[in-house]
Amino acid sequence: MKFNLIIIMYNLNCHKSPIVNSLLEIYRNSNLSHIRVFICDNSTKVDIKIKNKEYCGEKEFVYVDMNGNKGLSKAYNKAIELINEKEWIVLFDQDTLIVDNYFLELEKSITRNKHVSIHVPIIKSEDIIISPCLLKKMKVKQFRVEVNKNYSDITAINTGMCINKRVFSKTGGYNEDIFLDYLDHYFMREYYKYYKEVAVINATLIQSFSGHDNSSFETSLLRFKIFLNDFFVYCCEAGGGKIYYSRKILLRAIKLSFIYKNIAFLKMVLKR
Question: Which domains does the chain possess?
């Protein structure tokens, strides 16, 4: 069974990436000749891009230069084009820690559920399960998830998600109108238009959001601008989506305005 791993890098050297290092540790302990790694580099720093390209050459990874930060959707789609039909694709964030049993449990789940085209692990951050979640129209809610079980009403974040390439022939790939936020949940909603179930495998990955906690005002303002657009695209196709969108962005703007003691976030909402 062949797996194609797509790892999105952004202004981080590959050798400092938790997913790359934990993956190499598994390589040392197991035979992973059936795995091909694609590094999609969204980096904007030239020195990092040069080092990442050299690193990929040394490790025999496929280096995909995005020529700047083009967002998740375009990076995923560019790598997916390089992968053969019917092969399995696994998505990873640069800050994910993978566990030894991940690929073993993935193979078990695929063998056991031949009719299922997406398999997802449990993702934890600071001991809290953040994925999978229930998907109710636009709403994403935490719930008590069980492993080795199939669901028809869940969503999951991108990292650790395993997708058969044939799915993208149906869905048309990732929506490039979404740069970053809610891309995963939008994709899962599209998936259920053609497929019935998603399998949850018996493996838990750790996701770090350490770089997000100490963001500057300027960085948070830019992230909020991206969120406003992405969340609108996610909500606009659902019934009642615009009302839900307006309420959510207003609450987030108020929260950020209190954190940074600056009403720029509220002004951004009022301009839409």
Answer: 3-211 (3.90.550.10), 215-270 (no CATH)
> Which string of DSSP letters, residue by residue, matches the chain?
--EEEEEEESSS-GGG-HHHHHHHHHHHHS--TTEEEEEEE----HHHHHHHHHHHHHHTPEEEE-SS--HHHHHHHHHHTTS-TT-EEEEEETTEEP-TTHHHHHHHHHHH-TT--EEEEEEEETTEEEESEEEETTEEE-----SSEEESSEE--STT-EEETHHHHHH-SS-TT--STTHHHHHHHHHTTT---EEEEEEEEEE--GGGTT--HHHHHHHHHHHHHHHHHHHHTSTTHHHHHHHHHHHHHHHHHHHHT-THHHHHHHT-
pLDDT for res 154: 98
Structure tokens at 264: 């720029």
What's the pLDDT at 208?
A: 86
- Sheet architecture: strand order including 154-155: 139-141, 133-136, 154-155
Weakly modelled stretches of the chain, pLDDT under 50: none
Q: pLDDT, tens digit, for every residue of 39-75? A: 999 999 999 999 999 999 999 999 999 999 999 999 9
Tokens found for residue 50: 């040069």
- Write the DSSP string, 130-157: EESEEEETTEEE-----SSEEESSEE--
118: closest CA among 14, 194, 23? 194
pTM (2 decimals)?
0.95
Residue 132: predicted pLDDT: 99
Q: Each residue of 119-129: b (16+ CB within 10 Å) or e?
A: bbbbbebeeee
